[in-house]
Amino acid sequence: MSAPIVVGTDGSGAAERAVEWAAADAAQRHRPLHIVHAAQIWPYQVRRFVPPDESERVSRAGRSVLRKAEEHVRTHWPELRVTTALLVNAAPDALRDESKNAFELVVGQRGHGGFASLLLGSVSLRVAGHSSVPVVVVRGETRTSRGEVAMGYAMEGEEGDVLEYAFDAAAVRGARLRVVHAWQISASLAESGYPLDEDRMSDERRARIIAAYAPLYERYPLVEVVNEVLVGHPVSALSAASRAADLLVVGASGHRWGVPGLGSVGHGVVHHAECPVAVVGRSR
Q: Do you know which Pfam families this protein is assigned to (predicted)?
């Protein structure tokens, strides 16, 4: 069986949209769907301290959330293979554990219970920045097809996994791929008075980007690629590109105290994009 697409749900409206997006993606990719609910029982997280009635109440509510999500998926995607899991654990840990062997992990923009603070950092930074598989944060418009996948290219030379995910996502959807690279002139260079040829510098960067994805273009010859290189802030440029995209793909390129995580650009995009955002880590 091919690796599944894992989606987290807590029964909120945002989580329902995440389940719908994950189901549609699973159907497009001919992959099974695995729906996970992480039951939060604070302050009784240690099992031996959980009152019996509280444990049963949480389990009953969790099973109801999963049942409704599964029924919704089976109604709209009857041919899709669907499994569910109810876990008593912190949401980031539960999702990471269930998605270790997955194709991708999908979460909602915000919710209640275990997903309430997704955009406040406690879940997004712990999951999107540290997952072993791509993490899709479903936000913005998801039901209208715009025919485009956008990708942020950071020019750091280690973005093969990000490029491959973006090309594959565009191919699966029959969509155009827009590769966006925004660069900024350093303050010291701007203040030096040295004459700058922004057009030439952008052309040089564009040539490097085309060379980087050339092997993938040969593998996906039907994917139309548009290169967008501009001077500006990456978050602003990618947020603008998201308005015309079905999916925005970025890399998890940040490092804090030597640990890989969700960088400032990825963090900003997750907050401001107007379409689902796929955060793709780099193979180590």
A: Usp
Task: Write 122-125 long-range contacts (CB < 8 A, 24+).
Answer: 122/92, 123/91, 123/92, 124/262, 124/267, 124/270, 125/261, 125/262, 125/267
DSSP string covering 168-220, please? HHHHHHT-EEEEEEEE---HHHHHTT----HHHHHHHHHHHHHHHHHHHHHH-
pLDDT in tens, 227-268: 999 999 999 999 999 999 999 999 886 544 334 456 778 778
Does the CA dihedral 99-100-104-110 come out positive or negative?
positive
CA distances from 103 to 26, 45, 57, 212, 259 (A): 10, 29, 32, 24, 23
Q: Counting beta carbons within 10 angstroms of the beta carbon of residue 109, is it exposed (0 to 12), middle (13 to 18) or buried (19 or more)? A: buried
Work out the pLDDT band at 91, boundaries 50, 70, 90: confident
pLDDT given at position 257: 35
Picking from 93, 132, 91, the residue whose alpha carbon sits closest to that of residue 108 is: 91
Element (H, E) at 284: none
Cβ proximity of 239 and 150 under 8 Å: no
* Arithmetic mean of pLDDT over the chain: 83
* Residue 254 identity (one-letter amino acid): G
Q: What gap in Å lies between CA 207 and CA 204, rounded to an integer? A: 5
DSSP state of 45: -
Confirm if 64 and 14 have CB atoms less than 8 A apart: no
